[in-house]
Amino acid sequence: MAGIYVHIPFCRSFCIYCDFYSELFSRKGSESFFKSFSEECALRSSWAASSGGIDTLYFGGGTPSLLTLEMLGRMMVCLADNFDLSGLVETTIEVNPDDVCSNPRDWLDGLKGLGFNRVSMGVQSFDDGILKWMNRRHDSREAVRAYSLLRDAGFDNISVDLIFGFAGLDDDIWMDTLAKTAALPGGGPEHVSAYCMSLEPGSTLTGLYREGKYAGMDDDAAAGQYSMLQKALAEAGYVQYEVSNFARPGKYSRHNSSYWKGVPYLGLGPSAHSLSITPDGRRMRSWNSPDLASYVAGNSLGGYELLTPEEEEEERIMLGLRCVSGARLEKSKAAPLVNDGLLVGLPDGFYRIPDDKLFISEYIIEKLL
Ligand code: SF4
Questions:
Q1: Is 350 part of any domain?
Q2: Which CATH number does the domain housing residue 231 bear?
Q3: Is the residue at 272 inside a domain?
Q4: Which atom of ligand 1 has the smallest separation from the CA of 62?
């Protein structure tokens, strides 16, 4: 089975750390996007036939929660007209707390009616000073209110995004955010994604860093906050299943897990990426045009590359070792890292990175490749 990712290229404002592609939201812009999106769906409709069916659908961005129900409904109809969605088991939409709070209650009922059964909400922090610095549009009270509204509307699979590892986030504030996350109504969210702040090439934060106006956090301090994250969420009953992802038992993200397992996916919308299997069994990566202007001009596909067998192998190892299920490795290759305590053996020739080394997973993976 495969997944479909839909990139909604709009935000109402831009967060300091982010470089995902998006434009300022406008009704007119969303209409042009939809027209090209429907054309892209028709163009790619044969894709699913070679993928063994579709079991996950993910609306990300950008900010999908800026779209009206009517627009989301039209997009769903368009997807259903072009792809067989009868095997869908997980349909996720990313939301921002301010949109959840400002939309009428029937907007949430409408999302359920459209088939969304999982919500991923960008909370990032429960400290208002930090949220302001990040240029988020919500404060901590609004995040709690949005979460409660989602629960009241019957969503029983909610994921919350958090960020740690940046200058200004002291350990007490981080612990407080973790405690408040686990204490959210209804037993806390089913899923938590927590990312270490990174300097993305096009972000405002990277600009500030280059100008000497942001210093970052040193690696040891960030590693300490990662340990706090692991400990606090384990104590609250979450299971870590990937470097940045924690879930109640059985509530892991099927869609994101497919990426790490190397399952094919189709990305629709500007800047989206896809992974396909060619008729002769090769793996092909493709990417859409990077911006809305070229997307609406009718050039949805940006380019593609066929992976060499070596690249396929590297990707399998890299993605597998991000997960606690690990990757199959040659014993001779794994042995030095096992001796150094950087890998542990699992049954059937699999190895994984131990919990207390997951923070340096990129360094460990690099040593193997
Ligand atoms: S984090 Fe989300 S809301 Fe903020 S700029 Fe990035 S895509 Fe937009």
A1: yes
A2: 3.20.20.70
A3: no
A4: 7
Domain end position, chosen among 232, 259, 286: 259
Kindly state if the Cβ of 267 falls inside 6 Å of ligand 1: no
Compute φ and ψ for 295, nearest 5 degrees.
-65, -45
Scanning the structure block, which residue is given the tokens 């690099």? 366
- The predicted-structure confidence for 176-211, as pLDDT tens digits, reads as follows 999 999 999 989 999 999 999 999 999 999 999 999
**Is residue 64 lining ligand 1, measured as CB closer than 6 Å?**
no
The answer on pLDDT for 48 being more than 90 is no
Euclidean distance between CA atoms 322 and 57, whole angstroms? 22
- Asked if residue 368 belongs to a domain, the reply is yes
Residue 174 identity (one-letter amino acid)? W
Cβ of 63 below 6 Å from ligand 1:
yes
pLDDT digits (tens, 9 = 90+) for 290-346: 999 999 998 888 999 999 999 999 999 999 999 999 999 999 999 999 999 999 999
User: Best substitution site from 5, 18, 95, 131 to test ligand 1's pocket, by max atoms within 8 Å of Cβ?
Assistant: 18
Q: Please tell me the distance from the alpha carbon of residue 74 to that of residue 70, in angstroms, as a whole number.
A: 6
- Total domain count, the chain: 2
24 and 138 in a common domain: yes
82 CB under 6 A from ligand 1? no
Token duo for residue 173: 């504030």
Residue 22 in contact with ligand 1 by CB distance below 6 A = yes
Report the separation in Å between the CA atom of 166 and the middle of ligand 1, taken as the mean of its atom positions.
17
Tell me whether the omega of the peptide bond preceding residue 115 falls within 30 degrees of 0, making it cis.
Answer: no
Domain that holds residue 97: 2-259
Supply the residue whose CA is at minimum distance from atom 2 of ligand 1. Answer: 62
Nearest to 62 by CA among 38, 29, 28: 29
More confident residue, 299 or 48: 299
Is any atom of ligand 1 closer than 6 Å to the C-beta of 11?
A: yes
Burial 31-54 (b: 16+ CB within 10 A, else e): eebbebbbebbeebeebbeebeeb
Would the CB of 18 count as within 6 Å of ligand 1? yes
Q: Decide whether any atom of ligand 1 lies within 6 Å of the 120 Cβ.
A: no
Spacing, Cα 178 to ligand 1 middle (Å): 21
| Dist. CA 353–CA 320, nearest whole Å | 10
